[in-house]
Amino acid sequence: MSAPAKLPELFGSLVFNEDTMRQRLSSASYAAWKRCITEGTSLDLSIANEIAEAMKQWAVEKGATHYTHWFQPLTGVTAEKHEGFLGCGRDGSAIIEFSGKELIMSEPDASSFPSGGLRPTFEARGYTAWDPTSHAFIKDATLCIPTLFFSYGGDALDKKTPLLRSMDLINRECLRILKLFGHEDVKKVISTSGAEQEYFLVEKSLYDQRPDLVLCSRTLFGAKSPKGQEMDDHYYGAISPRVSYFMRDLDTELWQLGVFAKTEHKEVAPGQYELAPVFADSNTATDHNQLVMEIMKKTALRHGMVCLLHEKPFAGLNGSGKHNNWSLSTDTGMNLLAPGKSPKDNLQFLLFLAAIIKAVDEHQDLLRVCCAAASNDCRLGGFEAPPAIVSMFLGDTLYDLLTSIEHKEEYEEGGDRILESGVCTVPRLRIDTTDRNRTSPFAFTGNKFEFRMLGSSQSIADANTVINTIVAEALSEFAERLEKAEDFRREAFRIIRHTMRDHKRILYNGNNYSEEWIKEAESRGLAHLPTTVDAMHCFISEKNISLFIRWGIYTEREMRSRYDISLENYAKLIRIEASTMLSMAQRSILPAVIGYESKIAEAVSAKDRLGVPNDAEYALLKGLSAGVNALHKRIGGLFDAIAAMPKGNGEAAEYCRDKLLPAMGSLREAADALETITAKEYWPFPGYEDLLFNL
């Protein structure tokens, strides 16, 4: 990127986007594709062949040599199998091959991906199917075709298929409401998302010396650094040249792929950063966030750094989340969650707001489930992230307005508030009446809701699937009442009043970090599901199975498979962490500290022989000896805990939560205490101060 003037030319240059399709397809084929994405019509093979030919020619011109169906299995990351464009002609000559058949469908091995029993090992076949609503792109000289992933029997084995189903659903239910408001011109409503991605950067040479970072993406040991984030001097601070160069390269790559990487800054913890994009439709936003995470890691490596996406790579410091900014927009450019200048007169907005309140209250458990993971359990409730209790923040203005409607009271809107800076040269600044609450899990932020419980390593697909589905259900109930109403406006206000009466317990504008809120939430009857194990049981409740089946988002088989996969992954991850801890403690920490202990013992003995006072050496030796004995005992405790782990997914997950994690915490406590009294040259791993303050 040589100059700002090149930016428009650079953006999307590696994407087979709508402009490119318009230029390279016949008008009939372009129109057919357009109908496909706007009206849900299917494409016949002749159209697919033309698109494939145009896509191939464009990709080869851009330097692509291979193509792949790029999909999002239940691993949480993307998958791809590369096929060469180069084929062999009848005469043995080299030809370029790619047809509509290759574009539309491929057959990856479905048994090798998590399926929760949907595809046993001997049932290998699965299908990836082209998603025409998401643009193909070139990555690493490979044409990547976004696809969905199904089993041979038609079960969804990916995260995008349920998301697309939910987007169709909320489109349908929103249109019912909008037609009642007279918006006959609206043909489509799109759920939109924007994922704020937090991450850490560490020096690769130090990362390579930490088996816990290499194998588990987080530090399993580490004494507190003399300085952490106490001084609040990292947040929004000046970015070092090295990190700035990384960010510049990252932006360039993302812009070429059509990702609107917009905002980047230092986060609260040392070594922590954030990248925020411009919102897109939820399907595209999901693809883009997967690309962001992948390219962050690759770009960091080129700069001699490692990008950590784990939710809690360093104990005692802020973890990394992923705020999912969700809203609803029409094809006519209307934001359905924009209050306008006078919210009290915007009945349409108030009705959609009421639907969201109802949805969030009735399905708190599902919102907790969609961000459940062992890694995110390390962060939720840790005073740098929302607690594992779902609530909504509306701000005083909207809360007071809804309360006045509930009680049939007059509401007087306040005029614009002006920020008084006390500096005469500062322009008059209007204060946003919505305010902000950084502790709320589900907060209204002007014209969207910000769901803040997601972890930094997680896909946003599950969260948006849940939000779309539960809001659509509430809108459907509202539409049924309104379609039968004799007085539309009166019934709409009645719905809003009843919603506030029945669901206002979910609204909370205070400090979600406080102990008082946990007690108050319990008194309100809100769900408190502190761990993944607690939350996942809710996913397969009768209520939730019925919900997703009724709206065609998941089958019961698909839900139970996801439940099994989640618990299996939870247990596997914690067992890997426990085994890594055991290895590090047995093979590195214990021998290193014993070596240092021996050196101090020699010094004590030498001073004894000379009759020289050795109080300092003896006190250190005594502390080391006690620490080594404690470490040895807790190593044995963790070894026994790992050996006793049960086999079944559910039983193993509960055991990890109740037995294995406490044993790991106990071992860490002993090791971290020893790190504070062991000479640095003897300690086998780089410490927190080295990892956090060297970029």
Tell me what you see in this structure.
There is one protein chain. This protein has 695 residues and is an alpha+beta fold. The chain folds into 3 domains: 4-158, Glutamine synthetase, N-terminal domain (Ubiquitin-like (UB roll)); 166-219 and 235-411 and 439-554, 2-Layer Sandwich (Creatine Kinase, Chain A, domain 2), CATH 3.30.590; 570-692, Four Helix Bundle (Hemerythrin (Met), subunit A) (Up-down Bundle), CATH 1.20.120. Helices cover 48% and strands 13% of the residues. The protein contains 23 helices and 20 strands. Strands 10, 11, 12, 13, 14, 15, 16, 19 and 20 form a 9-stranded mixed beta sheet that branches. Strands 1, 2, 3, 6, 7, 8 and 9 form a 7-stranded mixed beta sheet that branches. Strands 4-5 form a two-stranded antiparallel ribbon. α20 (556-610) runs antiparallel to α21 (615-643). The protein is globular and about 100 Å long. The two termini are 24 Å apart. 45% of the residues are buried.
